[in-house]
O-antigen ligase-like membrane protein
Amino acid sequence: MRPVPGGAPAGSAATLLTGPGSLLTWLIVFYPVWWALGLGALIFPIVAIPMAVSLWRRRHVEVPPGFAVWLVFCLLVLLSLSALDVDPAGTVAEGWWGRLPGALYRATGYGCVTVIALYAVNLSEREFPRRRMVNLLCWLAVVTVAGGLLGTFAGHLEFTSPVEALLPPKVARDGFVQSLVHPQAAQVMDFLGYETPRPAAPWGYTNTWGNVLAVCVGWVVVAAFCFPVRWRWRIAAVALLAVAIVPVIQSMNRGLWFNLAVGAVVVAIRLAVIGQLWTIGVLALAGVLAVGVIVTTPLGEVVRARLDNGHSDDGRGFATAEAVEAVGESPVLGFGSTRKTIGSGESIAVGPTPECPRCGGRTLGGNGQLWQVLFAHGIAGTVAYLGFFATVLWRFRRDHTAVGIVGSVVMVLSLTSMFYYNALVAPLVITMLVYALMWRNVRDRAMEGKAR
């Protein structure tokens, strides 16, 4: 891959924490601290407030190409709230008031994503070098791998966070609230016939952990090999990628495995287009070595066991079919939020029982970003959402720098993972930061060319 031009030094600690763009530094560098405090996903709306103030104070706010499509999607999200009181056939009846908190959480999430993206876009190369952004994305990969190792070897670790301790007990016990404020190293499941910790730290869910790792791991390569750095950092990067194999397999996250394979294929295609065949050879060798390690160690048994146990396949299939069928009742704007089905594919029982723990209602729109957008925001919202990512891919198709290539991988993964991962909030924030970086890479390179 071509190195990234204009790689400015990272800057002093004081500049990182107090200068322009410091809100991004506080958000990303200290994310493990926010997680331990019980803020986790809550830190995104918190930090979006001062970011919005910063944008408001600017004389001019730059809106990058394709962002208008995203703003249309956000508008459709708000319009779809008008359907909160609609009860599709086969779903649990509930007033709009009961559905409002979940709907507002998602709408707020999209708002945070929008503000954070614009904040990142409107930083200049002098204020916040692209190299710094790449380093922050690399840091998120390091944090995710570290959390994965924690979940693998200390899977039962969990504790009451300060935020959780301050909440009323009834609120703190709610399952959704627990996912936000209760730090745990892993989700412990028994679908293999025995308890198995699946890494989740510091992202709350195993699927979110896998989603974040897939979109961040490529930035380790960019940070270590596409900028001038000391060899010890490159050795550390290779060691990190090698060690990451362990939690990647132990997560038993098939979506993550597929995303990593898709990412490798996209990189290979982009490199073939610019004739860098030797880099493809390095990528292929790394893949062969990784597969060799998996096959010749106990990790191979984990892969085989996971492939033999579909676990969530039936439930996902049922929820997807029901969501697609229900959209016909409100095709344009959807239903504003998710719904619970009356019973599931296993039983018509409203709730789970000891004899049938997976019985009970399924969440329509809870098993993938595509199904959530389609069900909650209708065909109009889905077209706008998909249109945004398609526009980004087309707009940056000719950027053959490392940022352009890895950024295109992240955009492709947003489209493939939407069938089985929900993107709000952290994965979508990271994806939009990558989008901001891609635009800044094109914009700032053009400005540097004019300056010469």
